[in-house]
């Protein structure tokens, strides 16, 4: 198969496509993804050269994760391969997809069974659609009928395993390929909508945005502006300004109504709020520069020049509101 095209069913997008067959992946990188890329690169080098690589650029926590992953792989995977392309085809040899699992090989506990391993950072979620495609590719490459599909959630020390069969994976892949190719279902609201590349043309997304502005009682002219394609708005200073005014008005009304606080309170009390959930997040620590300097002065300590750095000056976008005097002059 040639490398000059993208698969209609990218394995990494399979979980989103299974929820909405109209989903279009976009190029994005979150902090969790960047962390996962660094860890995976170190794991790949270690497995490829069978010796610990230099860990420059990784934090102590990331180095720890790399060591844990390599230890787990060596204990569970026979003949491990990292970043080896797998071509996935149906029984007639037609392409379903292709991709590169993080690790693939044979199950150390049963060498007649394939194994695929994905390394994931961030919050655990259902990625079995992606694992199923990789498992199918591994079983086709190894000519096996069984596969142990594994995802290692690096931020949570969680190992999830999904034993599967060739028939199960093939049926799931064929069904998903048909839905994605023929768009057999209508647009669906899913957890992946915010990352979809079709938002500007998605009727469901536009209706949601329009409804939000209508609930916020934004001026009717702003409704018309908000319904325009964002690409069209971006071509006009007038439309861009008008849209941002409308959006700011909606945000202010939501903020003033305390809707986010209400949703948090309901969720904390065990009541369901459709589309939302609570997630614990550590508080951010900060140091007062003024207090640090005062402490150093009282203690007779000289602060190193590079201890305190100043960020670059920035430019903020603010509303250009005419003053009362300007209004009176007019």
Task: Describe the structure in your own words.
By secondary structure, the chain is an alpha+beta fold. It has 2 domains: 11-182, no CATH class; 199-268, no CATH class. It is 45% helix and 14% strand. It is built from 12 helices and 7 strands. The strands form 2 sheets. The protein has a 5-stranded mixed sheet with strand order 1-4-5-6-7, sandwiched between helices. Strands 2-3 form a two-stranded antiparallel sheet. β4 and β5 form a beta hairpin. The longest helix has 21 residues, at 237-257. The radius of gyration is 26 Å and the shape is globular. The chain starts with 13 loop residues before the first helix and ends with a helix. Residues 323-330 have low confidence and may be disordered.
Number of helices in the DSSP assignment:
12
Give the strand tally.
7
Radius of gyration: 26 Å
What summary fits the major beta sheet? 5 strands, mixed
Mean pLDDT: 81
Descriptive terms for the model:
two-stranded antiparallel sheet; 14% strand; disordered C terminus; five-stranded mixed beta sheet; alpha+beta; 330 residues
Write the layout of secondary structure elements.
Layout: H1 14-19, H2 31-49, H3 60-76, E1 77-82, E2 86-89, E3 95-99, E4 103-107, E5 110-120, H4 128-142, E6 146-153, E7 158-165, H5 166-182, H6 203-215, H7 220-227, H8 230-233, H9 237-257, H10 259-268, H11 289-299, H12 324-329
Parallel strand pairs: 5-6
Antiparallel strand pairs: 1-4, 2-3, 4-5, 6-7
Helix pairs in contact: 2-3, 4-5, 6-7, 7-9
Short description, anyone?
Helix content is 45%, strand content 14%. The chain contains twelve helices and seven strands.
């Amino acid at each position: 198969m040639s490398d000059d095209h993208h698969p209609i069913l990218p394995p990494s997008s399979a979980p989103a496509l299974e929820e909405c067959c109209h989903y279009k992946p976009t190029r994005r990188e979150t902090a969790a993804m960047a962390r996962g890329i660094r860890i995976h690169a170190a794991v790949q080098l270690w497995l490829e050269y069978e010796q610990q690589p230099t860990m420059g650029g990784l934090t102590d926590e990331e180095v720890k994760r790399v060591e844990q992953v390599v230890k787990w792989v060596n204990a569970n995977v026979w003949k491990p391969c990292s970043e080896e392309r797998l071509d996935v085809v149906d029984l007639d040899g037609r392409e379903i997809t292709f991709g590169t699992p993080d690790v693939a090989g044979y199950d150390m506990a049963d060498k007649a069974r394939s194994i695929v391993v994905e390394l994931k950072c961030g919050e655990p979620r259902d990625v079995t659609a992606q694992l199923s495609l990789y498992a199918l590719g591994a079983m086709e490459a190894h000519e096996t009928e069984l596969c142990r599909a594994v995802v290692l959630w690096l931020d949570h020390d969680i190992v999830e395993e999904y034993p599967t069969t060739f028939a199960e994976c093939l049926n799931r892949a064929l069904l998903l390929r048909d839905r994605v190719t023929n768009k057999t279902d209508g647009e669906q609201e899913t957890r992946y909508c915010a990352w979809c590349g079709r938002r500007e043309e998605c009727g469901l997304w536009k209706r949601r945005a329009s409804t939000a502005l209508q609930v916020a009682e934004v001026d009717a002219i702003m409704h018309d502006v908000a319904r325009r394609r964002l690409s069209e708005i971006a071509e006009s200073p007038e439309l861009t300004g008008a849209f941002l005014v409308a959006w700011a008005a909606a945000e202010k009304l939501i903020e003033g109504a305390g809707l986010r606080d209400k949703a948090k309170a309901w969720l904390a009390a065990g009541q369901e709020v459709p589309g939302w959930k609570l997630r614990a997040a550590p508080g951010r620590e900060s140091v007062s520069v003024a207090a640090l300097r005062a402490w150093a002065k009282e203690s007779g300590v000289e602060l190193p020049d590079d201890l305190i750095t100043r960020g670059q000056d920035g430019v903020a976008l603010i509303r250009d509101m005419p003053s009362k005097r300007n209004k009176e002059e007019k």
